[in-house]
Write a structure and sequence with these properties.
mainly alpha, 2 helices, 0% strand, elongated
């Protein structure tokens, strides 16, 4: 019985806060959603196993004589 009253008190507090301070309650809700989203993204990043992201290990040199499409502009 005490557990049910405690849950009812929490719900009534949330309802009261929603009616009296909706901006604050929305802020808390968005903060909770952002925390969950960041936690999921961090978990996926860590479990990926590839934490050392480097762009390139080797350079690729393409000379003007090796261009396959001569009509396209080249990056110099």
């Amino acid at each position: 019985m005490a557990q049910g009253q405690a849950n009812a008190a929490k719900i009534s507090l949330i309802k009261r806060g929603w009616h009296e301070l909706p901006e604050l309650m929305c802020t808390f809700g968005l903060m909770a959603v952002g925390t969950v989203a960041a936690s999921v993204a961090g978990y996926k990043y860590i479990t990926n196993g590839d934490l050392n992201h480097q762009y390139k290990f080797k350079y690729t040199v393409i000379r003007d004589t090796e261009v396959k499409n001569p009509g396209s502009p080249t990056l110099n």
